[in-house]
Amino acid sequence: MRKFKIADGIHMLTMNVEDILFEGIWEIANGVTLNSYIVQGEKTAIIDGVIGWDGVPETLYKNLGEIDVDPKSVDYLIVNHMEPDHSGWISNFRKIKDDFTIICTDKAAKLVASFYGDCNVRIVKEGDTLDLGNGKVLSFHPVPNVHWPDTMYTYERDTKTLFSCDMFGAFGRMGVHCFDDELTAEEIDFFEFEGIRYYSNVMTTFTPSIRKAIEKAKSLDVKTIAPGHGPVYRTNPQKIIDDYSRFSQYAEGAGKNEVTILWGSMYGMTAKAVDYVEGILQREGIKYNKIEMPQESDSEMVATVFKSAGVIIAAPTYEYKLFPPVAAALDEIGRKRITGKLAFRFGSYGWSGGAEKELKEIIERNKMNWDFIESVEFEGAPKEEDLAKLETKVLELVEKMKEKVVK
Ligand code: FEO
Fold first, then answer.
1. What is the residue with the minimal CA distance to atom 1 of ligand 1?
2. How far apart are CA 391 and CA 397, in angstroms?
3. For residue range 220-232, what is the model confidence (pLDDT) as tens digits?
4. 268 and 246 both lie in a single domain
5. pLDDT at 129
6. Of 250, 282, 311, which residue sits at a domain end?
7. What pLDDT is recorded for position 51?
8. Same structural domain for residues 230 and 294?
9. Is 404 a domain residue?
10. Is 81 close to ligand 1, i.e. is its CB under 6 Å away?
11. Are residues 236 and 270 in the same domain?
12. pLDDT tens, 122-151?
């Protein structure tokens, strides 16, 4: 755990967490940070206190000591969101102090009781304030379903700092640079993709609520955005607001000017056609990504499809249905409510077709509303005439994709 000063009386404590499945599902290739914030007036509050994934609070207490905060002097635990990466420390904190007040929304209060038993809770509503003294006044602004129904922003008026919890967050471990103005060009790109990974893996299902939360952030006079995961934006908070606005468009079919080939092959017949399609994309100068299932993680698969303006699904028929790893990937994308993508499918069949029927079922069951170019299926290995059809359809996708591109 490391500590950084955000402003007089406000510090961030941050730790990198790796080798976990986030939410027990998502393999996060580049880790994630857990950030908590200490606000000191005459009284002291901790916002979204974090501890090690193993629940051991010693590093938190040690770091509090190093910024002259005696853990026993903490008056308020502000729980912006009850998911345990933000609240998991409460039961441990109670071991050293029991006369503190948890500040949270009514929906969080119910979860406090069910997760941690009886606690002293003050429920806050939109615009309620907490005066810590010495000019530090916090106000509270619920942003339901970002990403649970209990979530709220905390805003510090003196420094115009928005403690945004999951909103405006990103996966990715932080090195020595934790503020937007310190990031190198490479680190900016890194956190943009880790932001996409985070949004698509964790947040995208709640895109309508995220749009409302973006508007709420804009309605506050924000100088610094301090999220629960990822860098702090103290110089250009508009950058992460714009990123999140763009991500919300990706969730509904827009994307970067790139194609993702989501594919799988049993014996190399479909793979031959993938090679051919790659050649066309290279010739046309189109950026593309290849995601082979089941080899690739769901985290990478969802993030890569999510950010692409065009999706090529390359998968054969397997036992009268769509090749199962690709079918499972599409189902996951559907569960995440990633809608409106422009897509094209091709694939091989042997003794029976059936992939197309299941593809349609997945798209309809999940109400994905994807726009498909007519599929190309071929018996066994692709022949010359099949490859010619593939070229026509890929070029059609490349042309239509222009309408979907958002920079
Ligand atoms: Fe960072 Fe929804 O937890």
1. 166
2. 10
3. 999 999 999 999 9
4. no
5. 98
6. 250
7. 63
8. no
9. no
10. yes
11. no
12. 999 999 999 999 999 999 999 999 989 999
Closest by CA to 220, choosing from 124, 125, 130, 140, is: 140
Q: Ligand 1 within 6 A of 85 CB?
A: yes
Please tell me the predicted confidence (pLDDT) of residue 147. Answer: 85
Same domain, 28 and 86: yes
Identify whether residues 182 and 277 lie together within a single domain: no
Whether residue 406 is contained in a domain is answered as no
Domain at 359, CATH number: 3.40.50.360
228: Cβ below 6 Å to ligand 1?
Answer: yes
Q: What is the pTM of this model?
A: 0.96
In the chain (407 residues long), the average pLDDT of successive 10-residue segments reads: 92 90 93 95 92 61 83 93 88 84 96 90 98 97 96 97 98 96 98 98 98 98 98 98 98 98 97 98 98 98 98 98 98 98 98 96 98 98 98 98 95
What's the CA-to-centroid distance between 366 and ligand 1, angstroms? 24
Element (H, E) at 246: helix 237-250
pLDDT number for residue 60: 72
Domain at 171, CATH number: 3.60.15.10
> What is the reported pLDDT for 53?
53
Tokens 């990715």, residue?
A: 172
Left, alpha or beta for 170 (phi > 0: left; psi -120 to 50: alpha)? beta
Comparing CA positions, the residue from 85, 120, 116, 117 lying closest to residue 101 is 120
Answer for the pair 122, 77: CB distance below 8 angstroms, yes or no: no
In a domain? residue 407: no
The range of the structural domain enclosing residue 295 comes to 256-395
Protein residue with its CA nearest to atom 3 in ligand 1: 83
Number of residues written out for the chain? 407
Distance (angstroms) between ligand 1 centre and the Cα of 133 equals 29
